[in-house]
UniProtKB/TrEMBL annotation:
Residue spans of biased composition, Basic and acidic residues class: 1-15
Protein's name in the database: Ketoreductase domain-containing protein
PANTHER family: BENZIL REDUCTASE (PTHR43008), OXIDOREDUCTASE (PTHR43008:SF9)
Organism annotation: Saitozyma podzolica
Annotated region described as Disordered, given as residue ranges: 1-22
Length: 312
């Protein structure tokens, strides 16, 4: 009863405006909730901005790059492969052309710090003034399936280098560019802040039944921790950072595993609460959410999108 009374008093005070504040209710609402004037679908818009996508030559990165174009963003695609896969790439080009958006594809090895620096300098410098860079989606990654007793030190370092060091280098390069161009940004909602999304994995949270992939899982757990620390350093300066931890997705990465171990799809399907594996298109929503103003109060967090695999 006491708590109900306190709640009722608070409601009353809010309705009338805090005594002596001199702020009318309308003004107070505008200060307190700058996103409230945007109709809900507009919260998910990515228009008037540029988003950088790594690992964009195929799989998750290319599928989400297409979704970002459909959401109104110019997109800078980066990947170690010399060219993105067809026919998907041509479809993204067509979508961008139809909407008058800018879409580029360039080579980048995310483990090479000087390449990363120049790729991000160039992405920020060549963004259209009407479409400043405001987002990074980092999908580049590699898998290693090997008994831990057999893993050579070079292989261990390679996976950590691509998955964890690469995540750090692209986040750092993005933050250096964005923070230097937006020195007075802060953590308020509704401004022109930026959002970094790193692709982790549910494998950063668990040991996978049927897979010997200690190195990969350690690298992805590192991505989750990186997000928390970088959020601590950058969020009050207007730069949010979160991760998505997908469950099993049918892409070239898992196709290679299924070639080697044909029993895996059935094993993993049994462990999914939804009774199936996922496809890359199912990660468009989570990525758009985290890159847009819809997630304005979310930073330093990991979004598990795993069909319930880790819920039991
Ligand atoms: N497929 C899954 O089941 C699954 C599950 C959880 C997380 N993930 C993660 O999702 C992300 C995308 O995976 P995917 O399934 O689309 O795999 P994918 O192999 O199809 O795509 C990965 C992309 O990263 C690129 N890449 C690799 N090394 C690079 C480097 N050094 N520099 C730049 N680009 C590089 C590859 O060329 C490729 O285009 C990865 O981080 C992966 O770990 C995948």
């Amino acid at each position: 009863m006491v708590s109900e009374k306190i709640f009722a008093d608070n409601v009353k005070e809010t309705e009338n405006g805090p005594s002596g504040s001199g702020i009318a209710n309308g003004e107070e609402a505008a200060i307190a909730a700058p996103l409230a004037t945007i109709a809900a679908p507009g919260l998910f818009s990515l228009s008037a901005r540029t988003i950088i996508v790594t690992g964009a030559a195929r799989g998750l990165g290319l599928t989400i790059a297409h979704a970002l174009v459909e959401s109104g963003s110019d997109v800078v695609c980066l990947d170690i492969l010399p060219a993105p896969v067809e026919p998907q790439w041509s479809q993204v080009v067509q979508s961008a052309n139809q909407r008058g958006l800018k879409l580029t594809y360039s080579h980048l090895n995310v483990t090479d710090a000087s390449q990363v620096t120049s790729a991000f300098e160039s992405a920020f410098a060549s963004a259209r003034p009407s479409h400043p860079v405001r987002g990074l989606l980092h999908c580049a990654g590699i898998q290693l399936l090997k008994d831990a007793l057999e893993v050579e030190p070079e292989k261990f370092r390679q996976v950590i280098d691509v998955n964890l060091t690469g995540s750090f280098l692209v986040s750092q390069a993005f933050a250096r560019e964005w923070l230097s161009k937006n020195p007075s940004a802060n953590g308020s909602a509704g401004g022109n802040g930026a959002s970094i999304v790193l692709i982790g994995s549910m494998s950063g949270h668990i040991a996978n039944f049927g897979l010997e992939n200690a190195v990969y899982n350690a690298s992805k757990a590192g991505v989750n921790q990186l997000v928390r620390n970088l959020a601590y350093e950058w969020s009050r300066r207007g730069l949010r950072i979160n991760s998505i931890s997908p469950g099993y997705i049918r892409t070239a990465m898992t196709a290679a595993l299924f070639d080697e171990r044909p029993y895996l799809p059935e094993l993993w399907t049994k462990a999914s609460l939804l009774g199936r594996l996922s496809t890359p298109d199912e990660f468009r929503g989570p990525a758009i959410y985290l890159l847009s103003d819809a997630s304005s109060f979310m930073t330093g967090a990991d979004m598990l999108v795993d069909g319930g695999h880790t819920a039991h």
